[in-house]
Design brief:
Strand content: 5-15%
Bound molecules: threonylcarbamoyladenylate, magnesium ion
Largest sheet: 9 strands, mixed
CATH topology of the largest domain: DHBP synthase
Order of helices and strands: HHEEHEHHEHEHEHEEEHHEHEEHEH
Radius of gyration: 20 Å
CATH class of the largest domain: Alpha Beta
Strand order of the largest sheet: 7-1-2-6-3-5-4-8-9
Helix content: 25-40%
Distance between the termini: 41 Å
CATH architecture of the largest domain: Alpha-Beta Complex
Shape: globular
Number of strands: 13
Number of helices: 13
Structural class: alpha/beta
């Protein structure tokens, strides 16, 4: 990766930590836009997690995203757009519910799955006839799209899965994204540093082609918020899938790779533990020569012998810290990571999203 100096700099961009990032790039949104228009990849910040972006109208560049991530080509990516109006560029016969959701929640952490227009490259859709669209609420990201649009003379869009190797933990800082991908990136690919992502877990994905619509991946926008716009009957209860056979289930998993059982997983084996069990430990039994990490709500005390890695005060803190704590457990060489889920997560979409990601990180996954 080349070192480029940007002495003017974007006000909110900052030099990556040289120790973790090595020959880091110091870019502003305009430079990131130039790289994308020229057919290179860009690691970009969003409000959820960092994305590995390519110009969505350059299928050969999008194909590189799949290579760099090690992602199977039949797993679709999200196309990020600058406004709800851009839905018309990518989707045909778009259901009214999709327009309503985009107009209400964009920019924001909601991805809508809609019928793809015939002209859309099937590289983006993993060969399917639906496409996932989202407008992120991250100022620098939106500026990148804006600069691209000015150069390209149309409403630009970028395809951007999370900026991690397939199956691994999504990055919430530019340094974490670079650490996982830098050996696979090319000299002209770039990184835009927007600091730590505000939310910390991926967007809610909603299938707007189903009736009622279905939440495919929980995120900060939950069923209640969707129902406030569309009515309760229009939004399926979470977990009420239509699949009835094993074949249907595996088909479902290909459609939604973020829902594969072992996704979002650190190297350290993760186990879910309940807060009452933790409180019952005087000293954790197995800690003589091993480091066992613990993530638990702040109100839960650390049993003697466990190494506390995360103490979130609420589900917002929990989502914000989760992936960096997973990485910390790996960095510390923990032999195991115990995780107590958010307490009393009543009607709390972020608590549901945290529980979903933690369960998918467990070996074997808990349901
Ligand atoms: O927060 C996010 O959504 C982040 C940031 C970078 O925007 N992106 C992200 O992308 O998490 P990715 O590729 O890691 O996850 C995309 C999710 C997957 O679960 C995928 O299966 C689903 O969106 N998806 C994409 N296209 C789809 C489609 N046509 N039908 C069903 N699910 C789709
Ligand atoms: Mg991902």
């Amino acid at each position: 990766m080349a070192v480029r100096e940007d002495r003017g700099g974007h006000p909110s961009s900052r030099l990556l930590n040289a120790e973790t990032a090595g020959s880091a790039l110091r870019l502003n949104p305009q430079q990131a836009a130039s790289a994308l228009v020229a057919g290179h990849l860009a690691i970009l910040p969003t409000e959820t997690v960092y994305g590995l972006a390519a110009d969505a109208r350059q299928p050969a560049t999008v194909a590189r995203v799949f290579q760099v991530k090690g992602r199977p080509t039949d797993h679709p990516v999200i196309v990020h757009v600058g406004s709800a109006a851009a839905i018309a560029d990518w989707s045909a016969n778009t259901p009214d519910v999709a327009w309503k959701l985009a107009e209400t929640f964009w920019p924001g952490p909601l991805t809508i799955v809609v019928p793809a227009a015939a002209s859309v490259s099937r590289v983006l859709t993993g060969g399917q006839d639906t496409i996932a669209l989202r407008c992120p609420a991250q100022q620098q990201f939106l500026e990148v799209l804006d600069h691209m649009s000015r150069r390209q003379g149309l409403a630009s869009a970028v395809a951007a899965p999370s900026a991690n190797r397939f199956g691994q933990v999504s990055p919430t800082t530019a340094a974490d994204a670079l650490r996982g991908l830098r050996s696979r990136l090319s000299a002209d690919d770039v990184v835009l540093d927007g600091g730590a992502c505000q939310i910390g877990v991926e967007s809610t994905v909603v299938d707007c082609t189903a009736r009622p619509i279905r939440i495919l991946r929980p995120g900060r926008i939950g069923r209640r918020q969707l129902a406030e716009v569309l009515g309760w009957d229009a939004v399926a209860a979470v977990g009420t899938g239509t699949s009835t056979t094993a074949a249907d289930e595996s088909e479902e998993q290909v459609r939604v790779p973020g829902t594969l059982p072992s996704h979002y997983a650190p190297i350290t084996p993760v186990s879910v533990v309940d807060a009452a069990t933790l409180s019952a430990y005087g000293r954790h039994p197995n800690t003589t020569d091993r480091v066992i990490g613990l993530i638990a709500p702040a109100s839960v005390a650390t049993p003697v012998g466990l190494h506390r890695i995360g103490s979130p005060a609420n589900s917002r803190d929990y989502a914000h810290g989760l992936y960096s704590w997973f990485r910390r457990a790996d960095d510390l060489g923990c032999s195991e990571l115990l995780v107590a889920l958010p307490l009393d997560p009543v009607d709390d979409p972020l608590a549901d999203a945290v529980a979903d990601r933690v369960r998918r990180a467990t070996h074997p996954p808990t349901t």
